[in-house]
Amino acid sequence: MNKVILADSQAIFRAGTAKILAMEDDFRIIAQCAEAERLLPALDAFRCATVLFASTLKLELPDFVERVRAAGSRCIVIAENGESPLPYLSAGVQGFLHRGVSGPALIDCVRRVAAGERNVRAAGIGAVQPPDEDLVGARVRDRLTPKEMKIVALIVQGCKNKEIAMRLGTTEQVIKNYLRSIYDKTGVSDRLELALFTIHHRILAEAAAAVGELMMQGT
């Protein structure tokens, strides 16, 4: 059984990763952390595990890797798209994933690192679908209305229906109605699946990110 510790400040990504790994019989999630301060004690409490940590936690890599080794564990960084694997591999991190990695690539990387291998799944090395081949993402993006795209952007950010309704100046019931339409167009059944679908289809993810940025700017 491969024991896994997940550490990511972005709740929707952490939940999505946990859901993907939980579908495999040989993985067991033994701890989840949203902050670096909670991850470090977890290393001591749960030894001989595979640690997936987000680069956004801003850990002191040499010290962190040493603590991972002292606990008999191995670690994989979940990096932001565009980040280079070199600083992490040089520091002794055994696995590297970009945040947009596919579910099968994530599972394969964790298995390989848990088995003692080093594994890199960076953009351009078969881990992430190239934007010009993301036909599904492009098709869904074109089917969504501007209001639906705003809702998708807020879902990916982890917003609940009440917060989305407040941001868009409407009611929760209206948001629920929009979500039913979005689910039909994307072929998903709930908000977590919608977030994962968006993340794993680059063109749709980029469109949602652009809309989210515009909303933050108030335009």
UniProtKB/TrEMBL annotation:
Keyword Nucleotide-binding: no
Classification via Gene3D superfamilies: 3.40.50.2300
Pfam families assigned to the protein according to its UniProt record, in alphabetical order: GerE (PF00196)
Keyword Acyltransferase: no
Name of the molecule in the record: DNA-binding response regulator
Swiss-Prot/TrEMBL GO biological process terms: regulation of DNA-templated transcription
Cited CDD domains: LuxR_C_like
Keywords assigned: DNA-binding
Domain HTH luxR-type, first and last residues per copy: 137-202
Native source organism of the sequence: Paracidobacterium acidisoli
GO molecular function: DNA binding
InterPro entries, per database record: CheY-like_superfamily, Sig_transdc_resp-reg_C-effctor, Tscrpt_reg_LuxR_C, WalR-like
